[in-house]
Write a structure and sequence with these properties.
This protein has 5 helices and no strands. It has helices at 2-36, 42-49, 56-62, 95-106, 110-117.
Length: 118
């Protein structure tokens, strides 16, 4: 009988802990969704989120200033490009140009290469 009372007490204690953790988990989930959406300031976004039915997409549509820009001209751009979305000015566009550039730096010319082959 004492063991059953102890188990009931433990179960009730666990229910209390779960009840405390649920709101924290929901809060963390909302913060994560905001961060994935590119929010600039989570605290400011959370303050306005209730006005938009707790819908991150609606908030983003109504308050675009609160989120980072997206697309090819966004900060960071696509891989291998500058912030303008264009290739970096000094980047070689193909392997042949790169090889030629390094040969020039090394003091080699195309004539030197053909002499070795011949």
């Amino acid at each position: 009988m004492a063991e059953a009372a102890k188990n009931a007490e433990t179960a009730e204690q666990l229910r209390g802990e779960i009840a405390e953790l649920k709101p924290q988990g929901e809060s963390d989930r909302i913060d994560f969704k905001l961060q994935l959406a590119g929010v600039r300031n989570v605290k400011a976004a959370r303050a306005l989120l209730g006005d938009h039915g707790n819908d991150v997409d609606k908030l983003k549509e109504a308050e675009p200033w609160l989120f980072e820009a997206t697309g090819k001209h966004a900060k960071g751009g696509s891989a291998g490009s500058g912030t303008t979305g264009l290739p970096n000015a000094g980047a070689a566009s193909d392997e042949g140009k790169t090889l030629k550039h390094w040969r020039e730096i090394a003091g080699l010319t195309d004539d030197d290469e053909t002499k070795k082959e011949g």
